[in-house]
Design a protein that fits this description.
About 90% of the residues lie in helices and about 0% in strands. The chain has about 50 residues and is mainly alpha-helical. The longest helix has 26 residues.
């Protein structure tokens, strides 16, 4: 069960990375505040899933 939680967290971090990529590609600096927030969330998810 614990492994499933870690896998889900990792999957969510990967999805956020894809969203960030699309935001940067499509909208550039217009969404930089949102991108920065998503980067923080992604980093936190990666850290939690690594534990």
């Amino acid at each position: 069960m614990e492994q499933n939680k870690k896998a889900l967290l990792t999957e969510q971090a990967n999805k956020i990375a894809e969203v960030v990529k699309v935001l940067r590609t499509q909208f550039g600096e217009d969404f930089e505040d949102e991108v920065n927030y998503l980067e923080i969330v992604k980093k936190e998810l990666e850290e939690v899933s690594a534990k």
